[in-house]
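Annual report, structural modelling task.

Input specification for the heme C complex:
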Amino acid sequence: MDMNINMYHKLVNQIKYTLMLVCFTSLSVNAETIPANAPEVADIKDALATIVVNVDEISFSCIRDMTPVRHFYVDNLLGDIESTLAAANAPEGAIYPEGSVVQLVPTEVMVKRESGTFPATGDWEFFELEVNEKGSTIAKRGFVDVVNRFDGNCFSCHAPAREKWDFICESGHGCDPIPIDHKMTGALQRSDPRCGEAEPEDGDWMALFKLKSMVTIGLTKKWIEEKF
Ligand code: HEC
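The model returned the following structure:
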C-alpha cells in the first residue's frame, strides 16, 4: 500500500516535471512573439521553479525500493534516476542533479532541491525521519541547521566533502568517520520497518544490538549532560 502511494507520488512528480519541460519548451518557442520583459513569463518561470522538487512524507518509503549504489541508496523524485546514478558513479565526483535522494540509513535523507534554493549546502536539504510500518514522518528538515539524534549537525559533518563530491561523504571524501560501520548500516537497511518483513543476514542481530547500545549510551550521555 505504502509502495503504491509512493509510486503514485513519483508518477505525479514525473508528470509535473514533464509538464514543466513542455511549458519551458513552449516558452522558448514563443519567445519571439512575447516581449523579452513581459512580466508574465518571469512569473510563470518563478512559479514553475518553486514546484519542481516537491518533498513531503510520502516522498519517502522503503529504503530497499531505491537503487543501491555501493553501500547506500539513491533515487530521483523527478524520475531522472539515470542522471543521479551517473553522479553517484562518477569516479572523480560530480554535482548531483535536482530531485536526487540519497540515503545510507532509513532515518536520514539528503534531497537535492531546485538550483539556487540554498547555495551554502549546494542545494541539498537534510531530513531526519521517524519511520515505522505505516511510513515516514519528517522530524526535522532544513539546510544548515538540522541536527541528528546525536546532536550532530548534518551540514557541518558533510561539508568537508563539498569539493568534488557534492557533500557526499562515503569513505575517503574528507568527512570525519562515523562510529557506525557498513555492517550496521546494512542491518538497518534490511530491517527498515517500512519494507514489511525484515530480510536479515547473518550477524545483523548482533550489529543492531551493538548499534542500539551505542544509541542508548549516546542518548543517556546527552540526557546526563542536559540534567547536570
Ligand atoms: C558526525 C558526522 C555526521 C553527521 C552529524 C551526519 N552525517 Fe551523514 N554521513 C557522515 C559520514 C562520515 C557518512 C559516510 C558513512 C559511510 O559511508 O561509511 C555519512 C553518510 C550519509 C549519507 C549517505 C551518503 C554519503 O554522504 O555518504 C546520507 C544521505 C547522510 N549521511 C545524511 C545525513 C543527514 C540527513 C544528517 C543529519 C540528520 C547527517 N547525515 C548527519 C557523517 C555525518
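The CA atoms of residues 187 and 204 lie 5 Å apart.
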